[in-house]
Amino acid sequence: MNKVVIVTGGSRGIGAATSKRLAADGYAVCVNYRTRMDAADQVVAKIRADSGDAFAVRADVSVEADVIALFDAVEAEFGAVTHLVNNAGVLFTQARLVDMDLDRFNKVMAANVTSCFLCCREAIKRMKPGGAIVNVSSVAARTGSPFEYVDYATSKGAVDSMTKGLSLELAADGIRVNAVRPGFIYTDIHADGGDPGRVDRLSPQIPLGRGGTADEVANAIAWLLSDEASYVTGSFIDLAGGR
Q1: Catalytic option among 149, 152, 186, 231
Q2: pLDDT at 167
Q3: CA nearest 100: which of 149, 63, 62?
Q4: Are residues 135 and 179 in contact, defined by beta-carbon separation less than 8 angstroms?
Q5: Which class is domain 4-239?
Q6: What is the spatial distance between Cα 32 and Cα 6, in angstroms, rounded to a whole number?
Q7: 21-60 as b/e, with b when 16 or more CB fall inside 10 Å?
Q8: Closest CA to 239 of 86, 7, 19, 14
Q9: Which of 30, 93, 137, 207 is within CB 3.0–4.6 Å of 242 for a Cys-Cys bond?
Q10: 149 has catalytic annotation
Q11: Is residue 189 scored above 80 in pLDDT?
Q12: In DSSP terms, which residues pair with 32 in a beta bridge?
C-alpha cells in the first residue's frame, strides 16, 4: 500500500516534525496549513531536499468545504489518503474560566474539536483497511489546566472521547484510531498562550526533569501509524515526562 498522509497544522512545531519524520519513513506527505504558507513551504522544501515527497495545501480544517477540498487535492496529487494526523489546534492567553468570553471558547472548540471531527469523517469515507488515524490531544485533557487553559483542556478531552469512540466504530473495518497526549513540549504554542518560557519554568516539577521535543512526539505518532502498532487502537500515549 502506498502510504499517503495528511498532517493538519503541519507548518510548525509537532506538525512540522511529524511531517518530516513520516516523509523519512516513506509516506507521501500533505503539509496542511491555514496561514503560515512560508513555514509550510519550508517544511516541504526540507522533505524534498531529503528525497521525500510532499506538498503543502492551505485549508482551514474547521471549515467543512475546506476539508473536502483538502482531501480532494491530496487524492489528485498522491492518490487515496491512507493515514491522517489531526494536529491542528489553537491556544489562547492564560486565563481563569470566569474571565473567558464565549467567542474565545467557540474558537477553541472549532479549531481543536470540529477540525478533528471533520477530518476524521472525511478520511474514513476514503480509507481502506490498513488505514490509521492519530489525533494529537494533550496531557491537559487529564489535568484540566486550571487557572490557565480550561477551554483548551476541555477541547482535548473531547478529542480523547472522539478517539475512543471512533476506534471502536472502525475496528471491524480495519482502520485504527489512536492519540498522543503531549505535555511540556518545546513549541511555539506556549508563546501563543502568553508564556513562552512555560516549559523551562515547569521543568523542575517534571519527573524526568526536562521538557520534551517535537521530534519525540513525532516518533510516537509515527509508531502509532506504522504496522508495528497493528494491534493498537483506541489507545493513548502520554508524552509529558512522567506528569
Answers
A1: 152
A2: 98
A3: 149
A4: yes
A5: alpha beta
A6: 7
A7: bbbeeebbbbbbbbebeebbebbbeebeeeebebbbbbbb
A8: 14
A9: 207
A10: no
A11: no
A12: 57
Burial class of 209 by CB neighbour count within 10 A (0 to 12, 13 to 18, 19+): exposed
Using CA atoms, how far residue 5 sits from 45, 104, 106, 235, in Å, is: 17, 30, 28, 20
- How far is 184 from 160, CA to CA, in rounded Å? 18
- Give this prediction's pTM: 0.94
What is the C-alpha end-to-end distance of the chain, expressed in Å?
A: 38
Grid cell for residue 86 = 489531526
Question: Whose CA is closest to 89, among 7, 209, 148?
Answer: 7
DSSP letter string, 57-119: EE--TTSHHHHHHHHHHHHHHHSS--EEEE----------GGG--HHHHHHHHIIIIIHHHHH
Domain ranges of the chain: 4-239
Mean pLDDT of the region 99-112: 97
Query: How far, in Å, CA of 200 to CA of 185, rounded?
Result: 10
The Cα–Cα gap between 56 and 224 comes to 23
Q: Is 241 left (phi over 0), alpha (psi -120 to 50) or beta?
A: left
Q: Give yes or no for a contact between 59 and 66, defined as CB atoms under 8 angstroms apart.
A: yes
Residue tagged 467567542 (cell numbers): 103
